[in-house]
Amino acid sequence: MHKPVDAPVRGTEHTQTPRLPLSRFKVIDLTLARAGPSCVRTLADWGADVIRVEPPPESGESNDILGRRDGSDFQNLHRNKRAITLNLKTDEGREVLMRLAEQADVIVENMRPGVTKRLGVDFEAVRKRNSRIVYGSISGFGQYGPYAERPSLDQVAQGMTGIMSVTGIPGQGPVRVGVAVTDIMAGAFLAQGILIALLDREMSGEGRWVQTSLIESGIALLDFQAARWTMDKKVPPQEGNFHPTVTPMGLYPTADGFLNLAATSNRHFQKFCALIDREKMAADPRFASTSLRAQNKQALNELIADALGAKTSREWFEIMVAEGIPSGPVYNIDDVFADPQVEELRITRPVEHPRLGKIDLVAQPCEITGFDRAIRTATPELGEHTGEILQSLGYDVDAIERLKAARAI
Predict the structure, then answer these.
(1) Are residues 110 and 162 in the same domain?
(2) How far apart are CA 113 and CA 25, in angstroms?
(3) Using one digit for the tens of pLDDT, what is the confidence trace for 309-339?
């Protein structure tokens, strides 16, 4: 596979960057927290001209939901964007946004349903100014229904989608997944929906309202666990570090730690038994098929754990990899980024920040031949590009001063 050519490390203006797949699109970012920004990050990273709208300090609205602006979380979410401050509670601020929307292809927001309508910047209002707009919305529970106006966040969604019920060791009670999975997946699903709507617009000429929610994204993330209920009416239990439906697949103790491995097919299981010196286990009628191994997984897992105690994790890992049995270590985060395969993939990329210096951030998780996923510009300062964006809309110096006096920017 050809590796993409590196782009310059230091940030440059959007007009100076090489062409990227989404460089012909302009995106207005009205998002807060994590789900919305993670969606917009995808569009920005692949070249869209993203204008992030934040309230000015004088408005009294918080700009620090994700912590300090210079913090790693904020910097990782908002790179490759330009920034303007607008007070959407003022007529002047709303008008600036509408003038931006007239030139835009996409607007993304994740306010609570009803808020954009009260502000006068909802899909219907924007569509009157730009019928081709693709308007993306993320909410906790959807834009309609009895819970629509309820507040939510990732942990609430993890609980209400059943994710916490299938996570953790059997009997320990519900466990939160260690990352904000419904936020991240809602952002990914919305980005996908926006791109589908943009493709449709090439044929229809019409904009669309693209909607998703944390609860829908969490249910979709359940995937086969959800289908076990919808088709089989089986409520999946907690399975700890073992796969819910096939065996052997899970985390097994070794002489000095643990090893993830999977030998679920009949061919792999026979080979695996020979590798751990348990040929009799391969002939045991309790383990003669995938379905029988699943039925007798506790007994099988105990036998495997006993056998793996004879060698270290590294020794077993080298044996399994050499024979084509899927396996791997359990890393801490620092181990992840020290792994030679991760280093070779270069999923972390540097960018130069004007105050923080060179910082390393996490790039997009896919490669597209002919394009680079380098991070072009660091997260902008609050309102860093307000003046140049307003001037591009036709506001002169006096008009900008009037906006300041009205506390619209």
Answers:
(1) yes
(2) 26
(3) 999 999 999 999 999 999 999 999 999 999 9
